[in-house]
Amino acid sequence: MKYVYMFEEADGKNKMLLGGKGAGLAEMTRLGLPVPPGFTVTTQGCTAYYSNGRKLPDAIWEEIRTAMAALEKKTGKAFGRGRNPLLVSVRSGSALSMPGMMDTILNLGLSDESAKTLARETGDERFALDAYRRFIQIFCKVALGVDGDLFEKALATAKAESGAKLDSDLTASALTGVVARFKEIARKATGRDLPVDPWEQLRVATTAVFDSWEGKRARDYRAHFKIGPDQANGTAVNVVAMVFGNLGERSATGVAFTRDPGSGENTFYGEYLNNAQGEDVVAGIRTPLPIAELAREMSSVHAELLDVKKKLESHYREVQDIEFTVERGKLYMLQTRNAKMNAHAALVTSVDLVEEGLISKERALLRIGPSDLEQLMYPGIDPKAKIQPFAKGMPASPGAACGRAVFDADEAVRRAKLGEKLVLVREETKPEDIHGFFASVGILTSRGGKTSHAAVVARGMGKSCVCGAESIRIDAKERRAVAGETVFREGDRITIDGSTGNVYLGEVPLVASEVVQALQGDRTQETKVSRAFARLMQWADEARTLGVYANADTPEDAARARRFGAGGIGLCRTERMFNAVDRLPIVRAMILASDPKERAARIAELLPLQKADFKGILKAMNGLPVTVRLLDPPLHEFLPSVEELLHEMSTLQDFSEIVRHLDELPEMVRLVDPKLGEQMTAIDSMRRLLAEVKNRHQDEKLLQRKESELARVRQLHEVNPMLGHRGVRLGITYPEIYEMQIRALYQAVVELIQEGHSPRPEIMVPQVCTAKELEWVHRLEREVKAEVEATSGVKIECPFGTMIEVVRACMRAGKLAEIAEFFSFGTNDLSQATFSFSREDAEAKFLPLYTERKILQDNPFEILDVKGVGRLMEIAIEWGRKTRPDLKIGICGEHGGQPQAVEFCHEIGLTYVSCSPFRVPIARLAAAQAAVRTKSKQPVPSSI
Amino acid sequence: MKYVYMFEEADGKNKMLLGGKGAGLAEMTRLGLPVPPGFTVTTQGCTAYYSNGRKLPDAIWEEIRTAMAALEKKTGKAFGRGRNPLLVSVRSGSALSMPGMMDTILNLGLSDESAKTLARETGDERFALDAYRRFIQIFCKVALGVDGDLFEKALATAKAESGAKLDSDLTASALTGVVARFKEIARKATGRDLPVDPWEQLRVATTAVFDSWEGKRARDYRAHFKIGPDQANGTAVNVVAMVFGNLGERSATGVAFTRDPGSGENTFYGEYLNNAQGEDVVAGIRTPLPIAELAREMSSVHAELLDVKKKLESHYREVQDIEFTVERGKLYMLQTRNAKMNAHAALVTSVDLVEEGLISKERALLRIGPSDLEQLMYPGIDPKAKIQPFAKGMPASPGAACGRAVFDADEAVRRAKLGEKLVLVREETKPEDIHGFFASVGILTSRGGKTSHAAVVARGMGKSCVCGAESIRIDAKERRAVAGETVFREGDRITIDGSTGNVYLGEVPLVASEVVQALQGDRTQETKVSRAFARLMQWADEARTLGVYANADTPEDAARARRFGAGGIGLCRTERMFNAVDRLPIVRAMILASDPKERAARIAELLPLQKADFKGILKAMNGLPVTVRLLDPPLHEFLPSVEELLHEMSTLQDFSEIVRHLDELPEMVRLVDPKLGEQMTAIDSMRRLLAEVKNRHQDEKLLQRKESELARVRQLHEVNPMLGHRGVRLGITYPEIYEMQIRALYQAVVELIQEGHSPRPEIMVPQVCTAKELEWVHRLEREVKAEVEATSGVKIECPFGTMIEVVRACMRAGKLAEIAEFFSFGTNDLSQATFSFSREDAEAKFLPLYTERKILQDNPFEILDVKGVGRLMEIAIEWGRKTRPDLKIGICGEHGGQPQAVEFCHEIGLTYVSCSPFRVPIARLAAAQAAVRTKSKQPVPSSI
C-alpha cells in the first residue's frame, strides 16, 4: 500500500484518503495553479500508525524520506541544511474540517545552524530569527505539548525589556535573546534539548498530527456531531515547502472568497496583509487590507488571483474559500475549499451559478438548506446592533419584532387603531386574546412553552413570539413588567427575537425580509435576493412531485398562503372562527344553553358568520382545494376556567357583601366615634353609587349565571383533555354543530358558484378512530348536501375525508378508506398518542432531559419520529391504498413544514404536505430536494 | 329440489334445513320414540316463498298435499272431514329459537262440520267446541292478524253471562255461543267468513308462518343479536297430527328436563297437567304437578318417559328440554332441544356426562361459559329474597356483600377489630383509604365509574363494589347518607350487589360461593359443585397451552392467586406498596424533599418496607415467577390535590384569624354593651384553649408546610396525567427510586435463597417507548445486581422485560426485544392510547352513546378491541419474536381475565395472560376452550 503522494500524483477527488486540505492542494497542483511543492501522508497512514501501536511504520517513514528527496530536488534545496535550507510546513487535514485537530507547524527544519544560513541567504537576520522563534514556539506547543503561555510570557518580558510594543518591533538582537529563552523553556519542560535534526523534527511532527486525531477535543467533536468513520477516518499529514509572506513589502499573505459570502455578489472578496505570515492575519494585530487594494499594490498578482478564481469555480462548480501567500511578488496557493455562506449568498450564488452554466438546477436546489431559506423569511435583529438582551425565553415563532408593550388584547386593538406597532405582553394568552394577536407585531409571554397557545397561534400567523420568559414578572393590572433591574411599562418600546428567544429594551434596529416583502406583492421591494428566490422556487416547483398546501383559517391567511405558493389549504381549522371576538360570546351561549331550542338559536346565529368565513377563504383560494376540518377541540376550551370563574364569583360576592354591610356602616362608625358623623355624607354617596351599580348589574343574577357557568365548566372538565370529548366524538354527541358547519360551507359554495367562482371545498373529520364514526358524519353530510342542492339547484362537488391522528385509525386505514376519499395525517396528535406523551407536560417535565441524555435523539414534536410515528404512517398508507389505490394522502401537523419530515413524506408516497403559510416556500424547496435525491438514487434506465 | 320431508325421512342433524323443532321431531322419529306423524316444510321452502314474491310456489303446495295424503294414510283419518277428521298443528321453527316468530296453531282442520264429527267421535261435545273456539281464536290472531283482545273480551263476556269463573267452567252450550261470537269477530275484522276448507286453512297458516320470518319483531331480534343467514336462514313449517292431552283424566301434557337444570342432579325434572293442552301449562291457571307424581298416576307412561330420557341423552349427549302429551294413556313426544341450565347445573352435568362416558373432556370444557363460571365465584343475593333496592350505582366489582355502613377508613379498621362486617361508604375513595378496603367486605361510593379508584382496587381484591350511586348523598361528617326518603347512619346494615349495582337497606340473605370456599382451602365446605369445579379445572389445565398468571400486589393476594391456580404473578404493582397507610407519609416526604439528601433518607426508609413486601410475595409464590413492575404512576398521585390543600390551608388560616382576633374580642364586646362583661370568663377560657391548640400545632409552620406542599403539587400538576411524567420517565428522572426498588427486590431474593427458598423474580419496566429507556434501566439493574451479588455471594437469576403499553413500543418491538427477555402487554393504557380515549373521560362522556348507537360494538376497556389494539399486539409479537424467537409474552391489563381476550391471546401466540386472582379460574377455562377450539379447527392428521 502506498501511504505518501506528491501533490501532482494524488487524486484530488479523494478527500477520504487525502483529507480536505491535501485534496485541495493536489487538485490545485493538477490544475496548474501555483502551489508550493509538497506531499500528503494519507489517512490510511494514520490508520496504519494506530494499528502499529502508535508507532510510525518504517514503510511510511521510508516513503516520507523519498517524498522529501523529491521535494529537495524540486526546490533545489536541502532539508534544513546547506546554503539554501529547505523548510516545510506540517499540517493536519481530515475529510471533514474538525476543531481540535493539530495546528500548523511552520518553518520546520530550522535549527541554530540553518537559521543562520537563512539570515544570510535572505539578507534579513530579523526575519530568520523571527521564523526560528515562531517554529520553536509552535513546535513545542503542538508537537511536544509544552504550555504555550510560557512562551507568550517570555515574549512579553523580552518586549518589555527592549521597549518594543509589537512583536515586529523586536530587533534581531532582541530576537536572539528570545530564541535562547525559548530553547531553555523547551529544555526545562521536556527534559532535553530541542531536536536540531530536521528529520527528527519531521518525525515528531508527523506522529503528533496522527496523535491529535484521538485527542480529547477531536473525539468529543466527532461524538457530538456523530461523525462516523464513513465520513472521516483518520487525519492526513500535509508537508509543504515553506513560502514566506513576510519577506518584505513585495510579500503578503491573505484569505479570500471567490464570491461575497455575505451577499453572494460575484466579486472577489477577501483581505490580505503585506509582509506577514498567515497567523498574523488571524491574530488581528494589524488591520488587513481589502483584496481590491492588491490590484493597486501588486496588479499582476491580483490578475493572477482572478484567474485562479475562475479556474477554481469552473473546476469545483462551487464558491471557494482560499488561502494564498505572495513571496517577493510570486503568488502561491496554500488552500482551497468550498465556501461557507450565509443564506442570502447561498441563494444568490445558487441562481447565478446556474445562469453562468456552472451547475444544474438540481444542484442549485440541493445547494441551499431549507433552514437557510427560513432565515430569509423573517426580519432579524440587525447583526451590527450592539445591544444586550435583558431577558430570554423560548424561541417560539421566528423573526424579530419591535413595538410598544401592551398588556391586554383590548388595549392592543385600541392602540393599533392609532397606528402604533405593538408587542402583546401577557403571562400567557387565551383564545379570547386572539384580536390582540391581530393587532400586534409580536407576542411575549412569561409562561408556557413552544406548544402554548401563544406559540401555536403566533406560528400560524407568522408573527414573532417569545414564550416562557420566566424572569419577567408581569403585572397586567399595574401595566408594567419587571425583570431583575429592568422595568418597562405599557407604551414602552421593546424588541423580541423569536428566532433566539432574546428580549431587548427599546427599539433595536431590524433587518426586514426582502423575500417576504416581494412575496407579499410589494414590487417596489424587489431585489436581487427576492428575484433569486423566485427563480429557485420556480425550479423547486418544476422538480418536486409532492404537493405543498398551507394551514390557513382566515381569508387573509389563505391569500398569504397562495402568494407563498401553496397549492391548496390542507387544514382550515373551523374552531379558530369560533374563537373570534365577535363569535366567542355566541359559542359560549351555545355551550351553556340549557335547552335544545336555545342551543339551536345560538347555532343559527353562528351559521351566517361561518358561511362568510368559508366564502372568504374559498374565494381567496379560488380553483384550489380547501380542506375544511369540522370542529375539533373539546367544548371546555371555549369556556373560562374554573379558577377564573371562581375568582369572578368571589369578586362579585365580595361586592355584594360590601353593599349589604354598607347600611350598617354609619351605625358602626357612630358607635366608635360620634364625631365621625361628619363623614357620613361620604359614606352615603358611596352607598348610593354602589346601590346603583348593584341595580345596573343585577349582581345576584350575574352570580347565578356564573354559578351555572361554573357547573357546566365542571361538567365539561376532563382528566385528560388531549384524549377527551373532542373531534368527531363531539360531532356525534352534538350533531347540530357539525350540521351547521356543513350547511354553512355548502351555502357558501353555492353562492360562490352562482357568482361565477370555482370553489373546491373538501370536508375532513377529526379524531376518527372507527369507520362507523365516519359513516355517521358522511350520512349527515349527504343529507345536508342533498338539501342544499335541492334548494339551490346547484350541484356541489366535495370530497369527504378523514384526519389520521388516532393510532386506531392507522390500524383501520383499510376500512376507513372505503368511505374516506382522502387521508390527512395529524402528526401532532398522532405523535402524542404514539409516544403516550402529552406534549405540554412532556416538554415541561422530561423531554429536555430525554434529548439531553440522548434517550430520544430529537423532540418528536419538532422532528417527526420516523421509526415510530412514521412506521404507523407507512402502515396506514399501505392499507389505505390497498382499498383505494388513488387515495389522496396529506399531512397537516406542524411537521408538514419541517424539511426532514417533508423528505420522509415524499419517500412514503404522500400526495401533499400542509404547513403554515410562512413555511410553504421551505416545504416547496424540501420537496424539490427530496425529489432530486430520489431521482439521483434511482438507477439509470437501461435504454440510456 | 325437495321442500317437504316426512319426519321419518328427514335428516334430523340438519337444523339449518329443518329448523330446530323439525329436526328434533325427525330425530325422535328415527330413534323410534313416539312422535305423532307429521312433516316439515323446509327453510328452503321459506326462501322459495320469498323468491316467488311472497306466494307459495305450486311445487311446494303439491308436496304438502302429497305429505298430507301420507299423513291421512298413516293416521287412517281424512283431513278435516269424514267420520274421524284429521286435525293438525302448524308450528314455525328456524335453526335458532327466535322470539317474534309465529305461535303454534292447534286443531287446524276444524269447521262447524268437523267440530260436530269430533264431538261425536270423542263423545265429548265440550272438548270439541273448546278445541274449535281455540282454533278460531289463534288462527285469526296469528294467521289473519285479527286483534287478539277482541276474542279475550268476548270470552270474558261469555263467562260473565254464564257465571263461569274459569274457561273450563264454560258449558258446551256456552261454548256454542262463544264460537258464534268468534266467527262474527273474524267476519267483521277480515271482511269475510272464516275459511271452512281445511286446505285453505293450511295454505293460509303456512304462508303466515313464512311471513312471520320477516315480521318486525323477528327482524329486530336478528339485527340486535346479529344473527346472519349463516346461523338461521328462514323458518321451516312443521305440520303434526294433533294429539290431545285434554281428553279426560288419562290424558295429560307436560314439559321436562332430563336433568335438574337448577342443580344439575341426574334426576328427571319437570311438571305436567292432567286433562290439559300445552298452553294451559304455560298460562299458569292450574298449578302443574311435579313429574314424580306421574309415576304414581300413570306409571307406565312415566317409565316410558325415563326410557325416552335415556335414549335422548345417549343420542344427543346433552341434557334435553322436552315437551310431551299423553292422549288417553298413550305418550307422544312433541319437542326436544338442548336444555338451558344455570351455572351450577352446567358445571355439575359437564362433569357427570364425562364420567358417564357420554361426552369427552373437551366437550365438557366447551359446554360451560366462562361467565357462567364467574357466577359461581361470587356470593349473590338470594334469589328467593323479596326485597327492593333503594338506590342503584354501577356494578363495579361483582358479588354481593352485607355489612354495617362505615363512613371512613379508620373507623372501618376500628370496627373490624371488634369483629364487625363492614361496607365502606364514601363519596369516592383515595389511596389513603386502602386500609379501609382491607377492613371491609364491600365498598359503596356515590361518585366515579368502573374505572375509579374504588372499582379498580375492589376488583383487584375481589371485594364487592358499587360505584357512582349518585342518588345517595353522603355526609361523612354527620356520618349518615340519604337517598330520597331512605336514610342510613353509621352502623346501620346495608347490602350491596356488585354484580347488578343494586343497594339495599338492611341485611339481605346472600348465597355464598361454594367454589370459592373450597378453593380457599375450606375442606369442610366441599360440595358436589366444588368437586365438579375442581375436576373441570384439572381438565382445563390439561387442555390449555396458554399460561394463566395473576395480578397481585400483596402476599395475601399472591397466596390467593396460587390457590386459584395462578402459574405465577404477571403483574406486581409496586405503587400499591407505596400507598399502604404506613408508607404514604414517607413517600410524600420523599416527594416533597427539598434536597437530594433528604430524599435519599426517605428512600432509605422505604427500602426495608419494600424488601419485606417482596419477600412475602416471592415466598407465597415460591418456585413460580413473580413479575415486579417498577414504579409507574405519576408522583402527584401520592399527594393530596390542590383543592384539598387549599381547603386545609383556608381552615388553618381561619383558625389563625380567630386566635388573632380573640384578643380584641373583649374590647369589642365591652364597646357594644358593658354588661356583657359577665361573659368575659367564657371568652377568656376559650382564648386560653385556642392559644394552647395553637402552640401545640404550631399552625404557622403547618401553614408554611402546606404552602410548600401546594407549590410542589402545582409543580407536579399535569394537563394530561395519563400521558404524563410516569413509568420509566419517572425512573429516569429520579433514578434513586428505581434503584431502591431493584435493590429491595434483590436483597429479598438473596435472603430467601439463603433461607432455602426458590424465588423467581422478574423485573418489568412500565411505559417504555424507546429502547434507550430500557437500556438505561437495564444498566442500573445490572449495577445493583452486581453489587448485591458481590456483597452476598449469592447469584441472582432475574429476567428483565418491558411492558408494551405505549403504541411506539409496538412499533419498536424488534428493537426492544434486543434487551427485553419478555414483553407484557398493558392493554388498559394501550387501548387508551390506540383510541385516544381517556378512559375516565370517555366512560363519563361519550362511550355510552357510542356503544348505544353501535358506533363501537363494545366498550374497548371491557372487551379487548381486536381490530385495532389487537392488530398492534400482533405486529409487536411478530417483530419482537423476529428478534428473539423465544420471547415470553404476556398480557397484564384488565382484559387478561376477559374470556374473548383470553381466546385472542391464545390465537396470537401469547405465553400467558395475567388477571386478578378471582378471574384466574375463568381465564384457565377460557384458555382451555381456546385450545380445544384451535385443535378441532385443525385438520385431522392423515395417519388417523
Description:
- Two copies of one chain form a homodimer.
- With 944 residues, chain A is α/β, with parallel strands linked by helices.
- Helices cover 50% and strands 16% of the residues of chain A.
- An eight-stranded mixed beta sheet of chain A has the order 14-24-23-16-17-18-19-15.
- The relative contact order of chain A is 0.06.
- The interface between A and B is large, with 51 and 51 residues.
Separate helix tally of chain A: 39
Q: What share of residues of chain A is helical?
A: 40-55%
- Hey, which two chains have the biggest interface? A-B, 51 and 51 residues
Largest sheet of chain A: 8 strands, mixed
Poorly predicted runs of chain A? 939-944
- Gyration radius from CA atoms of chain A, angstroms: 36 Å
Major sheet strand order of chain A: 14-24-23-16-17-18-19-15
Average pLDDT level of chain A: 89
Q: Please state the structural category of chain A.
A: alpha/beta
Shape of chain A: elongated
Instruction: Kindly estimate the percentage of residues of chain A that lie in beta strands according to DSSP.
Output: 15-25%
Span from first to last CA of chain A? 37 Å
Instruction: Give the number of DSSP strands of chain A.
Output: 33
Oligomer: homodimer
